[in-house]
Design a protein that fits this description.
The protein is α+β, with helices and mostly antiparallel strands. The chain has one domain: 3-Layer(aba) Sandwich (Aminopeptidase). The protein contains five helices and eight strands; from the N terminus they run ββαααβββαβαββ. The chain has an eight-stranded mixed beta sheet with strand order 1-2-3-4-5-6-8-7, with helices on both faces. The chain is globular, with a radius of gyration of 16 Å.
């Protein structure tokens, strides 16, 4: 655990920005979660890849990266501050658009515990509050049932399908386009 200055806190999770000090924990969790993430997601799994990834999220004003951290645990399995996953807002455009695109991933140890659902709710509150966004989109490959369930629980609506939308794992992949606006919350 590096910095416990949270941007928002829920009952079991809190969100905070990425830091360079998170490299060891983040990359270890990414390696442990490889089977969970493939073929949808390829988070950085070594320190140099993490440094490049974090640099962009920390320095680029068109991106905002959030670590979803556990706030509770047990004596046998401490959870306070442990990274459960990450949620990034990419391609932030302000002005009349005030929109961003979500990218996210939960780590294997947190799967099925509702931590990412709570974390996404915190990110939505931060995005539609302090960040001043009006709309967020999540583009998800149709076969990624877990990711679709996450945004559906958060109140996103399916707006359509974008053929050959993103180049992932060596091919152009179709994506469902899910979105939520500040008014929908």
């Amino acid at each position: 655990m590096s910095d416990t200055t949270y941007l928002a806190e829920g009952r079991r999770t809190a969100i905070r920005p990425f830091t360079h000090a998170d490299a060891d924990e983040f990359t270890a969790r990414a390696r442990e979660s490889r089977d969970l993430h493939r073929p949808w997601l390829f988070p950085p799994a070594d320190p140099s890849a993490y440094a490049a990834y974090a640099d962009v999220l920390i320095e680029d004003p068109t991106k905002a990266g959030f670590l979803v951290c556990e706030r509770t645990g047990t004596a046998e399995k401490p959870g306070d501050g442990a990274i459960a996953g990450f949620i990034n807002i990419n391609n932030i455009v302000m002005g009349g658009f005030r929109c961003g695109a979500l990218g996210y991933g939960g780590f294997a140890h947190a799967t099925g515990r509702g931590l990412m659902s709570e974390g996404l709710g915190l990110v939505l509150g931060h995005a539609f509050g302090p960040l001043g966004l009006h709309r967020l989109e999540a583009n998800i490959q149709p076969g990624n049932a877990g990711s679709i369930a996450l945004v559906r629980r958060a109140g996103f609506r399916l707006e359509g399908v974008s053929p050959d939308f993103l180049f992932i794992d060596g091919a152009w992949r179709d994506h469902e386009r899910w979105a939520i606006t500040a008014e929908m919350r």
